[in-house]
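<given_protein>
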Amino acid sequence: MQRRGIIKQLGGLALLPSLVFGKAATHTNKPALRIAHITDVHLKDGLGAPEKFIRCLHHIQQQHPKVDMILNGGDIVMDMNKENLTTIDAQWKLWHTILKNECSLPMHYCLGNHDIWWHEDSSKQDLLYGKKYALNQLQLPAPYYSFTQAGWKFIVLDSVHLDIDATWYIGKLGDAQMDWLQRELQNTPATTPVCVMSHIPILTATNMVEDDIVNKWEFLGGDMHTDVAKIINLFNKYPQVKLCLSGHIHLRDRVEYNKQTYICNGAVSGAWWNGNKRETPPGYGLIDLHADGSFIERYVPYLEG
């Protein structure tokens, strides 16, 4: 699937990918909050997706210490972009049924590119067009928001927007959301650690291992935020931003840059419910957040064993 736009000449960014799935270093203090970060479930009735997703949810809920909440990084259902409403309704009905029956944990969502109804036959005045359908399903008043829990602030971003020619999507915030993000950080005490979640990665090394990129170092604008420099410059002013979570690429990496850690946490669906995506198995992120702003994280494959 084509991801429009190009990011070129990123220059001196120090990218440190981490593809290790083993145990993280121990921490002596009890975490303030334990979260599971799931992304790119792409749920549909087929490919064994419902059964495997249920297994993932059970795996999360069987963790010890227990998980307090789930952050869902988007691409919740298989695809809404060009589908008819009957197919979309069925995908979301399946999602709600599984969550009701198989998950007791609170879940916070951001929207992925596959959760948006950009259908050629619909009018832009349609009450369901664009992000409205998914927002209604998730009972979200807006596609970006913030909340606090256990001394941490969570900022959920809306990273998927139509490209300039309005035919496909691109990763960015836009002026209004960028202004909102700056106000959110300005109004956050320096002692309050911040975790940011987006669907499209703000910064990732995964683009460097795509099969069709060889010594070009040109990144499609749908694969990483095109406003990455602006966001990084903003975060650099607010060191309380500790962790940025994303998905979208279905690959796992960890990038340390300046004062922030950027983690792309693979995909629950792996390679669209067909095993591993390259070296990354189907899985989720398990993260212990501590009151001092530190954290311990690891990627957990849920189909192994």
Q: What stands out?
A: The chain is about 20% helix and 25% strand. The mean pLDDT is 89. Residues 7 and 105 are 38 Å apart (CA to CA). The first strand starts at residue 6 and ends at 8.
